[in-house]
Specification:
Elements lengths: L3 E7 L3 H12 L9 E8 L15 E3 L2 H6 L5 E4 L6 H12 L4 E3 L2 H17 L4 E2 L11 H7 L5 E7 L2 H13 L3 H10 L8 H4 L2 H15 L9 E2 L7 H9 L2 E12 L2 E12 L11 E8 L3 E8 L3 H17 L25 E11 L4 H11 L4 E6 L7 E8 L2 E2 H12 L9 E5 L3
Helix pairs in contact: 1-11, 3-4, 4-9, 6-7
The structure holds NADP nicotinamide-adenine-dinucleotide phosphate (NAP).
C-alpha cells in the first residue's frame, strides 16, 4: 500500500508558498515513494494574507515545535538566515532523526559541516538542492551524477539579481542605483540588497558547490568576496568597446595549495556563454578530469523553480535515494585550506579617471613597467564632464599582488582623480 508522508513546512514566503501550492496540486508527484501531504506549517505571522489556504494545516508559532511535532515526518526549512530559527529548527529535526529539506544556502555554507555530522549521527537525510541555482539542478549533479569524476573547478553566475542588474545597465544604458531601485520595486531584489549585490549570496552558493565538488568542509569564511556595487555604467560601456560583458562570477578551483573560492566581477568575452547569460538566469561550468566541461544554465530563483527543487529532495527522501550530505561521510570531509593569493595570475582591466594633462599616460605606463605588468591594450575616451578623461588598460597575464601594487601607486598619482577600477578578465 502506498505510504503517506507528513510534511511540515517552516516558512511560507516565496519558496514555502510555492511548495505548499505544488504539494496541494500534486501530492503523488513521486509515485514510487508514496504521497506527500503538508500537515503542519510555521511562519512569522499567522494572520498575514496569503495566496493559499493554510486553515487545514496545523499552525506552529515556533518552527522548532513544528520540527519536533510527531506529525512532522519530513521537515522543510524555508525561513532563511544562517542562524536563528532556521538553524534551531533544522537541528531539532535532525536530532530526532527526521529528514530535513532546506533551500537555505547561508545555513549550509556557514554550518554545513556540523549539520552534516549531526545528520549522519542521527541517520537523517539533509538535502538542499534548492539552495544553489534555484530550479536548475547543480547540487545533485555534483553529489551524485559526477561522483565518478574528479572535479577541477566550478564557475559561473550564481546570483540572478546581480545578473539582472548588469544586463539591464548594459541593455538600457542605465546607472546601477537606478536599476537596483527598479528591481527592488518589482520584487526582484531585497529591500536590503547587500547579500546579493555585495556578492555574499553567490559566495554562500559557491561554498556549497566547492564542498560537494571537492569533498571539503564548507569554508565560507575563506571565500574572497567582491560584489557589483562599484560597477558603473562607464565600465560596462568601456568593457563592451573592448569586446566584453561584465558578469558577477563565482568560482571554486582545486589548486596545489587547496581550494580557492571567490566571487568577483569579471570581464567575459562577448561570445562567452557567461556573457550570453542575461537577466536573472544562472549558469555554471563544471570542469572535470574525465567529463571535460559541462555547462548548466537555468532559473536561479522564483517560487516555481525553487519549489520544484525542494520537491525533488522530498522525493529522494520518500524513495530512499539519499547520499551523504556532501558526497563523502562528514568525518572524511577535508579540512579548510589556506590559499596563497600572491601566486594567482590572470589578465585584468584597469580603468582610470585622469586629469586632461600632458604626461599623464607616461606616468601611468612607467608604474606598470616598474611593477612588471605588461599592457595588452589601451583605450582612451573623450573628456567627461568636469575635465576627467577615462582611460582603460588591459594587461597580459600577471600576478595579482603586482596588480594590487600598481593600483596603490596609481591611486597616489596627483593626476589620477579617483581610485582605479580593477576588474579581472575571464580566462579562455
Ligand atoms: N526566493 C527564492 O527564489 C529563493 C531561491 C533559492 C533559495 N531561497 C532560499 O529559500 C529560503 C526562503 O526564501 P524566500 O524567498 O521564500 O523567503 P521569504 O519570501 O522572505 O519567506 C520567509 C518566510 O519565513 C517566515 N519566517 C520568518 N521568520 C520566521 C520565524 N522566526 N519563524 C517562522 N517563520 C519565519 C516568514 O513568515 P511571514 O510570511 O509570516 O513573514 C516567511 O513566510 C531562504 O533560505 C532563501 O535563501 C530562496
Amino acid at each position: 500500500m502506498s505510504r503517506t508522508w507528513k510534511i511540515g513546512i517552516a516558512g511560507l514566503g516565496t519558496v514555502g508558498g510555492g511548495l505548499v501550492e505544488f504539494l496541494a496540486a500534486r501530492p503523488g508527484f513521486a509515485p514510487q515513494g508514496g504521497t506527500a501531504v503538508v500537515t503542519g506549517v510555521s511562519a512569522r505571522s499567522r494572520s498575514r494574507p496569503r495566496a493559499f489556504d493554510i486553515s487545514k494545516f496545523a499552525w506552529f508559532d515556533d518552527p522548532v515545535e513544528l520540527a519536533k511535532s510527531p506529525d512532522t515526518e519530513i521537515f522543510v526549512e524555508l525561513i532563511g538566515g544562517s542562524d536563528g530559527p532556521a538553524k534551531a529548527s533544522v537541528e531539532a529535526a535532525l536530532k530526532l532523526g527526521k529528514p530535513v529539506v532546506t533551500a537555505n544556502k547561508a545555513l549550509i555554507a556557514e554550518h554545513g559541516a556540523e549539520l552534516a555530522a549531526l545528520a549522519e549521527a542521527n541517520n537523517a537525510p539533509l538535502l538542499f538542492e534548492a539552495a544553489v541555482m534555484g530550479g536548475t539542478p547543480a547540487v545533485k549533479v555534483l553529489r551524485e551524477a559526477l561522483v565518478g569524476d574528479e572535479i577541477v573547478s566550478v564557475a559561473g553566475i550564481l546570483n540572478g539579481t546581480c545578473n539582472y542588474i548588469v544586463s539591464e545597465m548594459e541593455a538600457h544604458e542605465r546607472d546601477f542605483s537606478d536599476v537596483l531601485a527598479e528591481a527592488q520595486a518589482k520584487g526582484y531584489a531585497e529591500a536590503d540588497p547587500t547579500m546579493d549585490v555585495g556578492g555574499f549570496d553567490a559566495a554562500h552558493k559557491v561554498t556549497i558547490l566547492a564542498a560537494l565538488a571537492f569533498g571539503c568542509a564548507p569554508n565560507y569564511a575563506a571565500a574572497e568576496i567582491e560584489g557589483v556595487e562599484k560597477i558603473g555604467l562607464l565600465d560596462i560601456q568601456l568593457a563592451k568597446l573592448l569586446g566584453y560583458r561584465i558578469r558577477l562570477t563565482a568560482s571554486a578551483t582545486r589548486t596545489p595549495d587547496g581550494i580557492s573560492v571567490r566571487v568577483h566581477p569579471t570581464l567575459c568575452p562577448l561570445s562567452h556563454p557567461l556573457a550570453q547569460t542575461v537577466g536573472p538566469t544562472n549558469a555554471l561550468f563544471i570542469q572535470g578530469t574525465r567529463i571535460a566541461r559541462i555547462f548548466l544554465q537555468g532559473p536561479g530563483a522564483g517560487a516555481g523553480p525553487t519549489a520544484a527543487a525542494a520537491a525533488a529532495d522530498i522525493a529522494d527522501v520518500m524513495t530512499g535515494a539519499v547520499r551523504p550530505v556532501f558526497q563523502v561521510p562528514a568525518a572524511s570531509l577535508k579540512p579548510p585550506s589556506a590559499i596563497d593569493a600572491s601566486k594567482r595570475v590572470g589578465e585584468v582591466y584597469i580603468r582610470l579617471m585622469v586629469k586632461d594633462e600632458p604626461g599623464v599616460l607616461a606616468a601611468v605606463t612607467e608604474i606598470l613597467a616598474e611593477e612588471g605588468v605588461s599592457i595588452d591594450s589601451f583605450l582612451q575616451r573623450p573628456v567627461e564632464d568636469g575635465g576627467a578623461v577615462p582611460i582603460v588598460l588591459t594587461t597580459h597575464e600577471t600576478v595579482e599582488t603586482a596588480v594590487r601594487k600598481v593600483a596603490e601607486r596609481l591611486a597616489a598619482l596627483p593626476e589620477v582623480l579617483e581610485p582605479p577600477r580593477i576588474i579581472r578578465i575571464a580566462g579562455a
